[in-house]
Backbone:
């Protein structure tokens, strides 16, 4: 158990819908990362938040957005869903330590199926 | 932009034998981190081993070791005394050093099967 929790575990929805994925980082971790794992694209970085502020953006679609709340949990919002958005969405968290290295701890993922 | 390439989509090893998974990467930076992650059927991402680019000594974690060739931009993972529990997808990953962006860049993965 990494200490990172993600809800829900599974989500099945229809095209055109909107869903929200939730992530609670490990206690004390300030950074949250979102990754998408799909069969055709592999594991891709979507977005990073640090202490409530957006820090880095990867291959995140305009239909997707995220935020990190004052209690440090994060939500990833996916709208106007398409079949190709079906994937496993991971959240990872890390905390700054002396030096630069800070391990990212991954949650169990949310499996999204768009029908 | 940095890229990570794993040229072996699938590998197979006999239990108790040794197997090496390959990874190459491309970067113009001189300092960075490299990782191997394991993803078993449960889908959990598990850090296996990491290597700091400024360290010449290859990292070792029990039965797992790496061969880091900085000039060749190569980072292979050797698994010794393979066990059934080692069967999983293995991802090579890169992370830049310094700055505020600590996201990981992953290869496409290698599926490792372990035969009893």
Residues:
């Amino acid at each position: 158990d990494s200490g990172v929790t993600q809800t829900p575990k599974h989500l099945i929805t229809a095209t055109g819908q909107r869903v929200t994925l939730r992530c609670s980082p490990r206690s004390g971790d300030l950074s949250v990362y979102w990754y998408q794992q799909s069969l055709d694209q592999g594991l891709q970085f979507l977005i990073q938040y640090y202490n409530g502020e957006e820090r880095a953006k990867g291959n995140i679609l305009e239909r997707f957005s995220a935020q990190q709340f004052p209690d440090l949990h994060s939500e990833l919002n996916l709208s106007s869903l398409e079949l190709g958005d079906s994937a496993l969405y991971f959240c990872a968290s890390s905390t700054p330590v002396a030096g630069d290295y800070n391990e990212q701890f991954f949650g169990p993922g949310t499996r999204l199926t768009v029908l | 932009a940095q890229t990570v390439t794993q040229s072996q989509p699938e590998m197979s090893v006999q239990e108790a034998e040794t197997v090496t998974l390959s990874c190459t990467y491309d970067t113009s930076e001189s300092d960075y981190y490299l990782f191997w992650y394991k993803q078993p059927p449960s889908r959990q991402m598990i850090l296996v081993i990491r290597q700091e680019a400024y360290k010449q000594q290859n990292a070792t974690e029990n039965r797992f070791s790496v061969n880091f060739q900085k000039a060749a931009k190569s980072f292979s993972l050797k698994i010794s005394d393979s066990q059934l529990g080692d069967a999983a997808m293995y991802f090579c990953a890169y992370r830049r050093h310094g700055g505020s962006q600590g996201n990981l860049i992953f290869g496409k993965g290698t599926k490792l099967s372990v035969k009893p």
Q: What stands out?
A: Residues 89 and 103 of chain A are 19 Å apart (CA to CA). Chain A touches chain B at residues 2, 31, 33, 35, 42-45, 48, 50, 55-56, 58, 88, 90, 92, 94, 100-104, 106, 108-109, 111 (CB under 8 Å). The mean pLDDT of chain A is 93. The longest strand of chain A covers residues 42-50.
